[in-house]
Automatic annotation (TrEMBL):
This is Phospholipid-transporting ATPase. The lineage of its organism: Eukaryota, Metazoa, Chordata, Craniata, Vertebrata. Its EC number is 7.6.2.1. Residues 1197-1226, 1250-1277 are annotated as: Disordered. The active site is at D390 (4-aspartylphosphate intermediate). InterPro entries: ATPase_P-typ_cyto_dom_N (IPR023299), ATPase_P-typ_P_site (IPR018303), ATPase_P-typ_TM_dom_sf (IPR023298), ATPase_P-typ_transduc_dom_A_sf (IPR008250), HAD-like_sf (IPR036412), HAD_sf (IPR023214), P-type_ATPase_IV (IPR006539), P-type_ATPase_N (IPR032631). It comes from Champsocephalus gunnari. One of its GO terms (cellular component) is plasma membrane. Mg(2+) binds at D390, T392, D829, D833.
Length: 1333
């Protein structure tokens, strides 16, 4: 551990089979150590880490103060016991985590590897492998270190590896040894190999390696294609040998395992601020009491000097005041108890387990549960405002299916009518025994065209069977396994296979197919590979008759312009088909071919050979050469592939949008493809006001386009609002946040020059969307453009960023964090999403088709996008609610406990005497009051999970940070101080004149202390009973058990037995028994409890009656339903799946502008490797099959919530006119799916004795007349519909006077239920009930 580190390397030199030479460079061994401690270092290192936290250092400072007898009136154990407990719990947790790291390290370090030592293979542990050793790997073994591949059992030194553990990509990759070492096949040759490698020093770049091999006076260039990295798995290769270049911590895997950025929640940051404020308050109280001590000692204290002299160090009243200050700092330190931090961590841990145990987030298909990979961010899940999502594999399944095609102007694969008879799936087996049984196609006319020998159809599928870079393996006759660089290619080759053109195998120079049952071998002359710029690929082949043909497939935007002019008519027809396919959200490709003469081929081949050998600008020269041959082609047709949406994606996006969460899609796909998916998942709809496309190539053009979009939004918003009645001063906004100014008239705002004020853009009316390309986004992310982009994009309901790089994804997230100060969540499934996931406040990884890299970098993970709504709307909202209630109560109970000392200071001569027994001070926070508040913080609920999903507006308080903020904190503090005043002065006033039945006065210190402590415990127990909204057995046991435990411990500590054993420690002997036997004491406790609780109870009754929160109203509707024994309602997913579903999850055609997408992966293919003269044998990996059906019902139009931070003037009737009252006139109705969104419209409430509580919110806005009276049952049903429409919102209630949750707010426990039932009975005695007055 204390070994001197070697100087940083500039280059690495490694000599094979020469440990002596390599050891002089002090290269790291192959032993890895991810653990932090060992037996010797654990205690000092762990304590050092724990005391780096300010809270622990603060309590250690208090402990030191308590050891000074002149200033301490408390025993040292009152601080050291809680501190030791906290440090011990944290140490045990850290030790447990580190034990598992040790165990994992040991398991990896003790793996066996075959090392070539002195000419023979010996088994060595991984930890004993050294740089320069030669290792033998066998099939399916993990690579032990970063190796230079020397030779392989495969021809030409090839081997196949899987890198899912390294970069998250599950597709197989090919590596090849240097040609000169590939011949060293046996151990003897390798044992005599003494080549030296000079290469770059260790780094974390997974896709780059630069080095040179020197051997036999020659040098050979080394690249990443020659390297096997640690963490890879050898696949489909019998054996290979490699030279260790980097070992242990120097390997690229370990270099990339840096610490993830530590994330803190907004509540954590607020708590740190509040703790500083509390410490300042503590100092102020200490100063006040110290000044009081100085005055008292000077004016009064000298009278007591004769029999109560100062302690020896004290010689004047100022020094006495100085010591008194520190004494009171010790006594009053419990305003910030150390148990607060432990309790917060325990609550978060419990919330994490609830996420892990949620069976409704378990995917049985993948056998994957949801996992909370961190315990520090749970409450932040309840405050998310922006979601940044990847597209492929996150919104879609990344499983492609051949859906439609156009051949010579004829379209095939017509979609079926979901209401009509379903077409029969074609059975290809009788026609083609090599067909893939999992392939689905329904149009038999295409199969008939193949059977009758249609020339164009045969050319079409021949192209699909030849023009690709797929690798194939045939384990047994007819059992083909395809491995493609992208799912698109696999789908196209599989389609050709089923229609009789079966790709069987390839060699570096040939492609073998089976065409209509006849085996055909083509000579592969060239592969013109795909890349992001070309957007197409081609192959040039020679058939058995000697004819040379170029086959090309690519994006229609680039391929159609390279056709021969004679194709014009066919191109127009095919373009119409492409538009239809794109409107269905399908990924499209155009197909074409060109016959070449021998002379044309020879001339082009020479130019290609020269370009391939160019020393500089090789890629550009090759691209120019490809361009020359890919001209004057003949159009064959087009393909349409469906990348199926994941199940429940449209529903999830709809619900999250209703919760005022904005969703941005950041994808590397082209614009057309991303827009198609946007329409498929209903982020974009044809009912939207306008969709803006930003595609400028310069900073100025991007700025102009953004400003034009903004001006257009303001103009259309003014036009829209001008047509509505009673909408003056109101805009339909995307959201609102604290601190925004009042919204003024639209006309006045529209006169503002660009860029307009942020509050105007936040109040934009209408549904807009923004689509921006990668090159435009690069300009928009520049420093002087960020404000322009943010103000425009954040006024839109949906934003889609196309062609973005992983770095740009992270930059977009950082930009929103910087400018909007909003909580962000990023969700993705691939390695290219890792930077975005790490940048966001919360990162969510989907365990899908692209490995586990995103999951490893994430804070939460699950297998389906649809689980996101439950994670946020249920677990996130509950976690935020529970944490806020916990903190409000915690601060309340500690101020009520501590401030009694402050008032007592005025009665004890400011002598720093404590009110309570020192054992009570020690046990108050760790025994008497810890468990009830933990139970509330872990188990509390305001509404059930179904209601959280049915009423997404319940999510808004977290976004607006309403339940715990500085205002709520001060309310809790005020309640705590009020309680302390009552608990001190009521017993003081009563007991000062009270006597026992024997006539002995009760005005003694011990009696007062026991009475005050008992009243305190009872009051805080009753308070938490009121604050608890969801009672479990655990809550009952903890609340009432803690109360019983207090009396048991108090009686035990003040018993004769303990006093007899420790007479100097227990000074309150017999006080509890004698005090609690006095009736006047119990009357005093009862009176103090009533004075503390009754005002709170009355306030909450009035609040729920006059200004209920949305959760109160939801709770009321639930009580009405339960009373009539109606079903509780269906979950959102279930409701949607039962309505409007379409067979096969397909969307209906949309008549709109052209939206085409090309079906290609956006990475280089295997073309160069295939044509390099190497045998490309495919691995035997089986393709996993997934269910492709997904629900396709959705909400056609998402409802916009009303911006409620506008102050509206009173109406003519003298009643307020909150903003939500002007919504209904402008919101289009929901579709069938949305009518069951909240499960209330389809289950009307017929309650004769219940009525909705008075909400003071208008239910309509299009008329000035009051609503007609309605029976109570209709009122309750109307209330539920009003909630679904988003009219009744927390914002609306706040506009009438503001929410005040927390220590003073109404709970949703037994007290509320009693109130709501009472209101129901009271309303039954009245005739009709109005929902709003």
């Amino acid at each position: 551990m204390f070994r001197k580190r070697p100087p940083p390397e500039e280059e690495r030199k490694v000599r094979a089979n020469d440990r002596e030479y390599n050891e002089k460079f002090q290269y790291a061994s192959n032993c890895i150590m991810t653990s932090k401690y060992n037996i010797v270092t654990f205690l000092p290192v762990n304590l050092f880490e724990q005391f780096q936290e300010v809270a622990n250092t603060y309590f250690l400072f208090l402990l030191i103060l308590q050891l000074i007898p002149q200033i301490s009136s408390l025993s040292w154990f009152t601080t050291i016991v809680p501190l030791a407990l906290v440090l011990s719990i944290t140490a045990v947790k850290d030790a447990t985590d580190d034990y598992f790291r040790h165990k994992s390290d040991s398991q990896v370090n003790n793996r066996q590897s075959q090392v070539l030592i002195r000419g023979s293979l010996q088994n060595e542990k991984w930890m004993n492998v050294r740089v320069g050793d030669i290792i033998k790997l066998e099939n399916n073994q993990f690579v032990a270190a970063d190796l230079l591949l020397l030779s392989s059992s495969e021809p030409h030194g090839l081997c196949y590896i899987e890198t899912a553990e390294l970069d998250g990509e599950s597709n197989m990759k090919v590596r090849q040894s240097v040609s000169v070492t590939s011949e060293l096949g046996d151990q003897n040759n390798l044992a005599s190999f003494d080549g030296e490698v000079v290469c770059e020093p260790p780094n974390n770049k997974l896709d780059r390696f630069c080095g040179t091999l020197y051997w036999r006076d020659k040098k050979y260039t080394l690249s990443n294609q020659n390297m096997l990295l640690r963490g890879c798995v050898l696949r489909n290769t019998e054996a290979c040998y490699g030279l260790v270049i980097f070992a242990g911590p120097d390997t690229k895997l370990m270099q990339n395992s840096g610490r993830t950025k530590f994330k803190r929640t907004s509540i954590d940051r607020l708590m740190n601020t509040l703790v500083l404020w509390i410490f300042g308050f503590l100092v102020c109280m200490g100063v006040i009491l110290a000044v009081g001590n100085a005055v008292w000692e000077r004016e009064v204290g000298f009278l007591f000097q004769s029999y109560l002299p100062w302690d020896p160090p004290v010689d004047n009243f100022l020094f006495s005041a100085f010591l008194s200050f520190w004494s009171y700092v010790i006594i009053l330190n419990t305003v910030v108890p150390i148990s607060l931090y432990v309790s917060v961590e325990v609550i978060r841990l419990g919330h994490s387990y609830f996420i892990n145990w949620d069976r409704q987030m378990f995917c049985s298909q993948c056998n994957t549960p949801a996992e909370a990979r961190t315990t520090t961010l749970n409450e932040e899940l309840g405050q998310v405002e922006y979601i940044f999502s990847d597209k492929t594999g996150t919104l879609t399944q990344n499983i492609m299916s051949f859906n439609k095609c156009s051949i010579n102007g004829q379209t095939y694969g017509e979609g079926s009518d979901p209401l009509g008879p379903q077409p029969k799936r074609l059975d290809f087996t009788p026609f083609n025994p090599l067909a893939d049984p999992d392939f689905c196609f329904y149009d038999d006319t295409l199969l008939e065209a193949v059977k009758v020998g249609d020339t164009h159809t045969h050319k079409f599928f021949r192209l699909l069977s030849l023009c690709h870079t797929v690798m194939s393996e045939e384990k047994s006759e007819g059992e083909l396994l395809y491995k493609a660089q992208s799912p698109d290619e696999g789908a196209l080759v599989t389609a050709a296979r089923n229609f009789g053109f079966v790709f069987r195998s390839r060699t570096p120079g040939t492609i073998t197919t089976t065409e209509m049952g006849r085996s055909v071998t083509y000579t592969l002359l060239a592969i013109l590979d795909f890349n992001n710029i070309r957007k197409r690929m081609s192959v040039i082949v020679r058939n058995s008759e000697g004819r040379i043909c170029l086959y090309c497939k690519g994006a229609d935007t680039v391929l159609l312009e390279r056709l021969h002019p004679c194709n014009q008519e066919l191109m127009n027809i095919t373009s119409d088909h492409l538009n239809e396919y794109a409107a269905d959200g399908l990924r499209t490709l155009a197909l074409a071919y060109r016959d070449l003469s021998e002379d044309e081929w020879e001339a082009w081949s020479e130019r290609h050979r020269i370009a391939a050998k160019a020393a500089s600008c090789r890629e550009d020269r090759l691209a120019a050469t490809y361009e020359q041959i890919e001209q004057d082609m003949v159009l064959l047709g087009a393909t349409a592939i469906e990348d199926k949406l994941q199940e429940g994606v449209p529903e999830t996006i709809a619900v999250l949008s209703l919760a005022n969460i904005k969703i941005w899609v950041l994808t590397g796909d082209k614009q057309e493809t991303a827009v198609n998916i946007g329409y498929s998942c209903k982020m974009l709809t044809d009912d939207m006001t306008e969709v803006f496309i930003i595609s400028g190539h310069t900073v100025q053009s991007v700025r102009q386009e953004l400003r034009r979009a903004r001006d257009r939004m303001i103009e259309m918003s003014r036009t829209r609002d001008g047509k509505e009645e009673g909408v003056e001063g109101c805009f339909m906004g995307n959201g609102f946040r604290e601190g925004q100014g009042d919204s003024r008239g639209g006309e006045k705002q529209l006169q503002c020059p660009p860029p307009p004020p942020s509050n105007l853009m936040d109040n934009i009316s209408g549904e807009f969307a923004l689509v921006i390309n990668g090159h435009s986004l690069a300009h928009a992310l520049e420093a002087d453009m960020e404000t322009e982009f943010v103000s425009t994009a954040c006024a839109c309901k949906a934003v889609i960023c196309c062609r973005v790089t992983p770095l740009q994804k992270a930059q977009v997230v950082e930009m929103i964090k910087k400018h909007k100060k909003a909580v962000t969540l990023a969700i993705g499934d691939g390695a290219n999403d890792v930077s975005m996931i790490k940048s966001a406040h919360i990162g969510v990884g989907i365990s899908g088709q692209e490995g586990i890299q995103a999951v490893l970098a994430s804070d939460y993970s699950f297998s389906q996008f649809r689980f996101l709504q439950r994670l946020l709307l249920v677990h996130g909202r509950w976690s935020y609610l529970r944490m806020c209630r916990f903190l409000c109560y915690f601060f309340y109970k500690n101020f009520a406990f501590t401030m009694v000392h402050f008032w007592f200071g005025f009665y004890c001569g400011f002598s720093a005497q404590t009110v309570y027994d020192q054992y009570f001070i020690t046990l108050y926070n760790i025994v008497y009051t810890s468990l009830p508040v933990l139970a509330m913080g872990i188990f509390d609920q305001d509404v059930p999970d179904q209601r959280s999903l049915e009423y997404p507006k319940l999510y808004e308080p977290g976004q607006l940070n309403l339940l715990f903020n500085k205002r709520e904190f001060f309310i809790c503090i005020a309640q705590g101080i009020y309680t302390s005043v009552v608990l001190f002065f009521v017993p003081c006033a009563i007991l000062s004149d009270a006597t026992q039945s024997t006539g002995v006065p009760l005005a003694d210190y011990q009696t007062f202390a026991v009475t005050t402590a008992t009243a305190l415990v009872i009051v805080v127990s009753v308070q938490i009973a009121l604050d608890t909204g969801f009672w479990t057995v655990i809550n009952h046991v903890f609340v009432w058990g803690s109360l019983g435990l207090y009396f048991s411990i108090m009686l035990a500590l003040q018993s004769q037995t303990l006093f007899g054993i420790f007479p100097n420690q227990f000074h309150f002997v017999g006080s509890a028994q004698s005090t609690l036997l006095q009736p006047v004491v119990w009357l005093t406790i009862a009176l103090a409890t009533a004075i503390c609780i009754v005002p709170v109870l009355a306030f909450r009754f009035l609040k729920v009656d006059l200004k209920p929160q949305l959760s109160d109203t939801v709770r009321y509707t639930q009580l009405v339903r339960q009373k009539k024994r109606k079903p509780a309602g269906r979950s959102v997913g279930g409701a949607w799946r039962g309505v409007g579903s379409v067979s096969e999850g397909r969307l209906g055609a949309r008549g709109s502008s052209r939206r085409s997408g090309y079906a290609f992966a956006h990475t280089e293919g295997f073309g160069e490797l295939i044509t390099s003269g190497k045998n490309m044998r495919l691995s035997s990996l089986a393709m996993a099959t997934f269910a492709s059906r997904h629900s396709s019902s959705w909400i056609d139009t998402l409802r916009r919530k009303k911006h409620s931070h506008t102050n509206t003037p009173p109406s003519a009737s003298g009643e307020s006119s909150p903003a939500p009252s002007c919504v209904s006139g402008s919101i289009p109705p929901l579709s069938n799916s949305s009518s069951v969104l909240c499960g209330s419209q389809d289950a009307p409430i017929e309650e004769e004795t219940g009525a909705a509580p008075d909400t003071q919110t208008a239910s309509t806005s299009s008329t000035q007349n009051p609503p007609a009276p309605a029976p109570a049952s209709e009122a309750a049903d109307g209330l539920a519909q009003t909630l679904n429409a988003g009219v009744l919102t927390p914002a609306a209630l706040r506009s009438q006077g503001g929410d005040s949750p927390g220590g003073w707010t109404i709970s949703l426990g037994a007290v509320q239920e009693a109130l709501l039932r009472w209101k129901g009975r009271a309303s039954a005695s009245n005739s009709p009930v109005k929902l709003a007055e």
